[in-house]
TrEMBL record:
GO MF assignments: arylmalonate decarboxylase activity
Keywords (A to Z) from UniProt: Lyase
Cited Pfam families: Amdase (PF17645)
EC number: 4.1.1.76
Domain of life (superkingdom): Bacteria
Class of this enzyme: lyase
Coiled-coil residue spans: none
Name under which the protein is recorded: Arylmalonate decarboxylase
Gene3D superfamilies: 3.40.50.12500
Keyword check for Nucleus: no
Length: 244
């Protein structure tokens, strides 16, 4: 009977993502960026259509149960909490602990973890950050990245509270807004938030600014692939996936 089986469609790696209940962009982006032979598996944690420090902090108690719902056979290689602001509000240590409760065989990571790993990989220390967030989240993001060793030379948000608004921001507007947030002394520009359709403009924005541009979903895919041992280079979505 053993001769009847192979590794299935996803023999290279299986990656899980815990999304916000409101999320509408990340799944499309992950499938767009995913190389052949890698399986992507998604679940969601409850949250209202209001992205505040309070609602994000409350997600911590739901991460373990959400993680446990993905591939209970234990074959998941990596699991990621796919929210930039949520992972920095809750904190990576707590996120990892909760993910490990639900998926003990998978390596845990988070969106902010992937972003900071990507920034280190490209050698960037001075960062300009464009976000859709409320000021209360921007302040926490600046503090979190500063504590991690980065210099945030500028951070500006669109002051949006609803995830359902963040997903509707036009890519061309994202590019223009991010370019205004950039500063000449920034080593790199980071466009924060998995809800924004930022991957659509990364190549053109890097050419426009003459520097590397990191976005949340681009960095997340790069991070989970490298953690899973997948080293494919992916063109068309910024230099991070193409060159690192």
């Amino acid at each position: 009977m053993s001769q009847a089986f192979d590794e299935g469609r996803h023999g290279r790696a299986k990656i899980g993502f815990v999304l916000l209940a409101t999320e509408q962009t990340i799944e499309d982006d992950m499938f767009t960026l995913c190389p052949p032979g890698v399986g992507l598996h998604f679940t969601r944690a409850p949250i209202p259509d209001s992205i505040t420090v309070e609602t994000l902090r409350a997600q911590a108690d739901d991460l373990a149960q959400a993680a446990a719902s993905i591939l209970p056979d234990g074959s998941l290689d990596v699991i990621c909490y796919a929210c930039t602001s949520g992972s920095l509000v809750i904190g990576e240590d707590r996120v990892f602990a909760e993910l490990c409760k639900g998926a003990p065989n998978a390596e845990p990571t988070s969106l902010i973890t992937g972003v900071m790993a990507a920034l280190r990989a490209i050698g960037a220390r001075r960062i300009a950050v464009a976000t859709p967030y409320l000021d209360e989240i921007n302040r926490r993001e600046a503090d979190y990245m500063t504590d991690a060793g980065f210099k945030v030379v500028n951070i500006q948000g669109l002051n949006l509270e609803k995830d359902s608004d963040m997903i509707r921001v036009r890519p061309d507007f994202i590019a223009d807004f991010a370019a205004r947030v950039d500063r000449p002394d920034a080593d790199a520009l980071f466009i924060s938030c998995g809800a924004l359709r930022s991957i659509d403009v990364l190549d053109a924005l890097e050419q426009r600014l003459g520097k590397r541009v990191i976005s949340s979903n681009q960095a997340m895919m790069w991070d989970v692939l490298r953690r899973a041992g997948v080293s494919d280079r992916i063109a068309g979505y910024g230099s991070l996936l193409r060159d690192f």
